[in-house]
Amino acid sequence: MSPWKAAQPGDPLPTVDTPALLLDLDAFERNLQRMAQAMSATQVRLRPHAKSHKCPEIARRQVALGAVGICCQKVSEAAVFVDAGIDDILVTNEIVGAAKLQRLAQLATRARIGVLVDHVSQVRALASAARAAQATVDVYVEVDVGGNRCGTVSEESAVRLAQMIADTSCLRFAGLQCYHGPAQHLRSPQQRGAAIINAALTASSTRAAIESRGIPVPRVTGGGTGTFLLERDSGAFDEVQPGSYVFMDRDYADNRRSAGGIAFEHALFVRTTVMSRPSASRVVVDAGLKASSIDSGMPAVWQQPELRYIKAADEHGLLSVSAISTPALGDALMLVPGHCDPTVNLYDELVCFRGDVVEAVWPIAARGALL
């Protein structure tokens, strides 16, 4: 943790120290409202994913606008949000290990907690932990609907897991997790549409197979920022889990929007300073790998297309410049991160601004919650 803060409420925006993670409150609030409006006229629930922001203040605002709860990816992440008063959390991950399961079960004595399974041994271990804590845990069977990561790969295995959960008194069979991660970043609407048609078919057939055994399937949940409208309208999903919409990173902005798609705005920025001008064609800024994740590509320079971020080192970012662009030593630039989730995890605080003034500084309380 830095011994100094980048900014305090009331500071003029030009005085914010760099590198710093900034949130444009006007754009952020419009993003929240657009999502709430997109879901309000449907029976499909919104459970946004908090791994994108790791910030209790944002989660509280999402719930206030109609979200039923949040998703987390780690038990320690969920613990931060339970402590902050969020009382309905789905951990969209398989949890393995006695210590983690014990902590998960303890959280379930304080809030409604869900978790995923895709193997019978996970169900047994989870039941043992829940029984010891005298807790009841919601359990979802994860189904591989095209992501080729976790999840059952046959209807038979999904039925077997659902039956096992339903027969275990300290567990509550809550439904199916059917998230297609790679589909979120398919660039064309046609590609995304085809992927989610297949995902919805798999989700529906798995649900039918389980229900044919007399086991109710309360919910099918999934979907992300890139596809949630498709899941919403598919008839197969009861709940969607978009997360990045609150911020919108450069990678999501590279997706071509479908007719009727929602234009979420860039709200998250890394403020950086030009620290060197070694040549007429090269600019070096103070935001490198430790300030912005590049796993989904380089950040973009906000509203300055003539500047191109081309390389990142630990503490340095290298920009190429055109003849018409002459940023000077000491100039501040705003970067749009390539991938918001891991970028947020690099910072302790969000510097929230409105207009040209810092309005608030919000702790990223679940930063580093990896256990």
* Annotated CATH architecture of the largest domain: Alpha-Beta Barrel
End-to-end distance: 19 Å
Shape: globular
Helix content: 25-40%
Low-confidence stretches: none
- CATH fold assignment of the largest domain: TIM Barrel
SSE run: EHEHEHEHEHEHEHEHEHEEEEEEHEE
The Cα radius of gyration reads: 22 Å
Instruction: Estimate the strand proportion.
Output: 15-25%
Any idea what the CATH superfamily of the largest domain is called? Answer: Alanine racemase
Regarding CATH, which class of the largest domain? Answer: Alpha Beta
Helix tally? 10
Tell me the total number of β-strands: 17
Please state the structural category: alpha/beta
Roughly what is the average pLDDT, rounded to an integer? 97
Tally of domains: 2
Largest sheet: 9 strands, mixed
Description of the structure:
The strands form two sheets. Strands 1, 10, 11, 12, 13, 14, 15, 16 and 17 form a nine-stranded mixed β-sheet that branches. The chain has an eight-stranded parallel β-sheet with strand order 2-9-8-7-6-5-4-3. By secondary structure, it is of the alpha/beta class. α5 (120-133) links the parallel β5 (112-117) and β6. α6 crosses α7. The protein folds into two domains: 13-22 and 264-363, Lyase, Ornithine Decarboxylase, Chain A, domain 1 (Beta Barrel); 42-248, TIM Barrel (Alpha-Beta Barrel). Helix content is 29%, strand content 24%. The model has no long low-confidence stretch (mean pLDDT 97). The chain has helices spanning 25-40, 56-64, 75-83, 98-107, 120-133, 155-166, 189-211, 228-234, 250-253, 340-344, and strands at residues 20-24, 45-46, 70-72, 88-94, 112-117, 137-142, 171-177, 220-222, 239-240, 268-279, 282-285, 300-301, 307-312, 317-321, 332-336, 349-354, 357-363. The longest helix has 23 residues, at 189-211. It is built from ten helices and 17 strands.
